[in-house]
């Protein structure tokens, strides 16, 4: 079995397991939408809107081909410009309705860059991160501990490195604030060999449900009112800003002619912006900024 076939088998199975796990919590079913890309490839988008727990959730698998890598993929590796590519992976974003339940993101991916007469250049990337609207220390510790557990079998240096990378990547430079409380993030992973990199990526993907479902179960039924929903919508605006301005995955999808509906399913359904607004000092909303959006080492 080729390296690409191994990756495809894992990613399709991972998508199915995650969707099934989320359906048990929500009590409803995802819509399954198969699609094809005219330039080559396709995928399966699994989307849930107006569920019992998830206001919007999308778990996407894509496997696409192209004649030339988009600019977002060669910015850090200009020597690969002009190569054809094969890219695949699972990407998800979940927006619960309850403001006390955090938004979460996961992406695990594999990419090969090809040129006639040369060996393919391949790499893995991925990670997961948590974006709460109301902070709970036990949730933050649990999420980060599970991320650390996913990486620990591969060496002690991976978690601090990938945690720092996540904090730096999911940062809104124009706001000078983190998007959330982070997690782990990595890209261009190709050493020491395919098996090691693939095993690490599989571990990240398979730890996702363990990282998120206990938090979702704890928070999905916490009572809330209009104040909490209003703050959630305001903070969701930061999520939109990051995804549309800074996110390399969004840029790669759009620049490579990906399916727009699947790429932008990451955006929340209800969002608000305010002019020069700040929370009341000492409030629960203020504590999100002072106690959680600070790039803290939780474990």
Characterize the structure shown.
The protein is of the alpha+beta class. The protein has a single domain (3-292), classed as Coproporphyrinogen III oxidase, aerobic (oxygen-dependent coproporphyrinogen oxidase). The protein has helices spanning 3-26, 71-74, 137-151, 158-169, 194-206, 208-219, 226-245, 248-255, 260-263, 284-292, and strands spanning 31-36, 41-49, 54-66, 84-96, 103-114, 121-131, 171-172, 177-178, 182-189. A 7-stranded antiparallel beta sheet has the order 1-2-3-4-5-6-9. Helix 1 packs parallel to helix 5 (194-206) and helix 1 packs parallel to helix 6. The longest helix has 24 residues, at 3-26. It is globular, with a radius of gyration of 19 Å.
Round the Cα radius of gyration to an integer and report it.
19 Å
Spatial sequence of strands, sheet with the most strands = 1-2-3-4-5-6-9
Structural class: alpha+beta
Outline type: globular
Mean of all residue-level pLDDT scores = 92
Helix and strand succession? HEEEHEEEHHEEEHHHHHH
CATH topology label: oxygen-dependent coproporphyrinogen oxidase
Give the low-confidence spans: none
As for the number of domains, it is 1
Helical segment tally? 10
Q: Beta fraction of the residues? A: 25-35%
Q: Can you summarize the main beta sheet?
A: 7 strands, antiparallel
Organism: Nitrosospira multiformis (strain ATCC 25196 / NCIMB 11849 / C 71)
Site (Important for dimerization): 174
Binding site for substrate: 91, 107-109, 257-259
Cofactor: a divalent metal cation
């Amino acid at each position: 079995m080729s390296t690409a076939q191994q990756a495809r088998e894992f990613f399709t199975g991972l998508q199915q397991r995650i969707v099934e796990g989320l359906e048990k919590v929500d009590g409803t079913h995802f819509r399954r939408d198969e699609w094809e890309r005219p330039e080559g490839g396709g995928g399966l988008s699994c989307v849930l809107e107006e569920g019992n727990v998830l206001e919007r959730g999308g778990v996407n698998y894509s496997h696409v081909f192209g004649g030339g890598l988009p600019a977002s993929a060669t910015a850090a590796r200009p020597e690969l410009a002009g190569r054809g590519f094969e890219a695949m992976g699972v990407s998800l974003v979940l927006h619960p309705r309850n403001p006390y339940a955090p938004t979460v993101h996961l992406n695990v991916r594999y990419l090969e860059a090809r040129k006639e007469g040369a060996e393919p250049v391949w790499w893995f990337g991925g990670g997961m991160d948590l974006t709460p609207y109301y902070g709970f220390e036990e949730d933050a510790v649990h999420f980060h501990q599970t991320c650390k557990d996913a990486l620990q079998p591969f060496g002690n240096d991976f978690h601090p490195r990938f945690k720092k990378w996540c904090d730096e990547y999911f940062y809104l430079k124009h706001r000078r604030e983190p998007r959330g409380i982070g997690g782990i993030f990595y890209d261009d992973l190709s050493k020491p060999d395919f098996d090691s990199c693939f095993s690490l990526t599989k571990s990240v993907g398979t730890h996702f449900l363990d990282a998120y479902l206990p938090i979702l179960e704890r928070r999905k039924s916490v009572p809330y009112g209009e104040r909490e929903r209003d703050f959630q919508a305001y903070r969701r605006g930061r999520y939109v800003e990051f995804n549309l301005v800074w996110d390399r995955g969004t840029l790669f999808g759009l620049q490579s002619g990906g399916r727009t509906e699947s790429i932008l399913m990451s955006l929340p359904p209800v969002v608000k912006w305010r002019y020069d607004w700040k929370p009341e000092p000492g409030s629960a909303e203020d504590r999100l900024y002072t106690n959680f959006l600070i790039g803290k080492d939780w474990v």
